[in-house]
Fold:
Amino acid sequence: MASLFGAPLWLQLIVFAGSSFASLGFLRPIARRHLSMPHAIRTGAAALVGAPAIVLQRVDSNGGLVRIGGEEWTARPYVPDQVLEPGMQVEVAEISGANSARL
Structure:
């Protein structure tokens, strides 16, 4: 912007640095708020983290099947040597892939 008015290079650099720090100071709090969105606002797969699920088929390190919110998902336990039997209620710890959850 300063170069449009024919300002010397040193002034252009000062204007650049000042505007960079000002924009960082303005945008950083907004970005931090978006990174820590509450669970109620999350959408898509991110909204399923923390949701309850029911084990439909035995879930072990090789996989299994659970129902999350009316949909069937393939699943693996969060702890690799854990085995979850059908009928157990579990909580979704992580979504990895299109239809795969870690419990």
In short: Residues 9-35 form the longest helix (27 residues). The radius of gyration is 24 Å.
